[in-house]
Inverse folding.
């Protein structure tokens, strides 16, 4: 799996929006958009609220229990996100698909790049590259760009913490 602008920006921005938590403020969201090179990322209160609502709809794409469920969630997002599908070569990039025109406002562009990117990645990989952290109570989601594609945790920290917890549960009289 080769990750680049066309299949990476959307899914990774989507994961960061979900992981921003329940109530990120506009400045925090704007920082995320900038980090993912979204152009004209300035957000007023209304746009920030729209992106918070969108982030809540993105979560089940990562945590879906089956391919059918993931496709159904994504199709609903595409219904609300896709406009005129076209090819672009902006910023000297190789040709790739955009789902809305560049003149659209920032909310429309973020919806399009996240829904479109997640849909393309799902079509290419069967959805096996999207997931939620296995550590209970973590709640973070991730895009699995590892070679083997068997990532289970949002971070090495969660993986280690979970390994320690499982070891203790399996051996209650040792290691305390
Ligand atoms: Zn692009
Ligand atoms: Zn985690």
């Amino acid at each position: 799996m080769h990750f680049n602008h066309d299949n990476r920006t959307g899914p990774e921005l989507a994961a960061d929006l979900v992981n921003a938590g329940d109530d990120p403020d506009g400045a925090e969201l704007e920082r995320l958009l900038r980090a993912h090179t979204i152009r004209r990322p300035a957000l007023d209160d209304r746009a920030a609220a729209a992106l918070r609502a969108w982030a809540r709809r993105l979560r089940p794409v990562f945590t879906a229990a089956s391919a059918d469920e993931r496709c159904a969630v994504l199709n609903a997002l595409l219904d609300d996100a896709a406009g005129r599908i076209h090819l672009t070569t902006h910023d000297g990039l190789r040709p790739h698909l955009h789902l809305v025109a560049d003149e659209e406002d920032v909310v429309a562009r973020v919806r399009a790049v996240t829904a479109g990117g997640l849909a393309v990645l799902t079509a290419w990989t069967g959805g096996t590259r999207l997931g939620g952290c296995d550590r209970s109570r973590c709640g973070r989601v991730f895009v699995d760009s590892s070679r083997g594609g068997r990532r289970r945790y949002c971070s090495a920290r969660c993986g280690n913490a979970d390994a320690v917890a499982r070891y203790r549960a399996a051996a209650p009289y040792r290691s305390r």
